[in-house]
Please model this.
Amino acid sequence: MNTFAQKSKVNSAAVYYKEPYKKYGEALEAIEAAVTNEQTSTWAKTWYHRGMIHMLLYESEEYKNLCNKCLTTSYESFLKAIELDPKNEWVDEIKNIRIPYLTYHMFNEGITKFQEKKFVEALDAFEMVQKMTPEDTSSILNAAYSAEQAGQKEKAYFYYQKLVDMKYFDDEVFLSYTNLLRSDKKNDKALEVVKEGRKLFPDSLSLMLSEINILLSTDRTEEASKALDAAIEKDPNNPNLYLALGSTYDNMANPRDAAGNEIEKPTNSKELMVKAEAAYKKGLQISPANYELNYNLGALYFNQGAEMANATNSIKDNAEYEREKKKYEDKFREAKPHLEMALENNPRGSAEDNNLYEGTVISLKEVYVRIGEMAKYEKIKNLLEK
Model:
């Protein structure tokens, strides 16, 4: 009697959800009773109908609230039907129609949740899509993005690495993965990833710049200068590349320890400074008002003038002293227009800008004293006091 009653539950559920009845509430109640019954829970038919009912609940605005994670339950029910009877009468329908349908809607669910900034829910959806279609790269990519936005870094690393291993053909993937690694101070791994990306995308300027930034931030200046030369070949009219190249040569010529203190200069320091000057000048040919390029070139001349002035102080012979004095004054005069341009064009939009602005004012104050422009000295002094 009980077996007949439970069989009746399965049949009733199958009738309730179909046309013309569409009684999804009754269908759900009947099928849930059947899947908990010891006998009918072993029937493929029970799980097939459960899959259909939850799929239809998902589609219905009126009944959607009757199930939680309708698409997931539908998918798992269809899988159970195949597991119980791999040759059941619905197997082709499940594989070729139902699962692709569920995959499509689960993916769209993930996109919707991501757009709503519900990143954990988006991640759940994209991970479910991967179960449905394991080689779907779009779901892996979106899982990586969702995990990153959800703050689940380990999962983000996992999915980005999966794409790298698959040689996913989009340089933005390698860039996003690299940036995430760098934010976590995993610079060695970031460099490994960006180099892998550059094998696939040798012309990607974004990856070139990312590699350069990593090399610069880890004091691999010689490698960085070579990478910058390559980047400039690809984008010869980018003033920021010349700024980076000039700064790299500058830093190589004037090394500092971890505490920022000056250490012994390399034997080719002068040669490196010539290269730095040339890079800054090239950048200024492209962008004459660029305040960073102007500041760096002005600071280069200022520092050279200061070194010359310090050396002149030890000269006893008046005639020689005057000759050397004129040389360092000329060097300060070289610095002047660049520092003035830097001061004029600094947007002061960030803390870094403000620090550079203050450094420019201090340098100009010294320049004006050195070359005897006292009216400008008083003006800049007042500016500094403010």
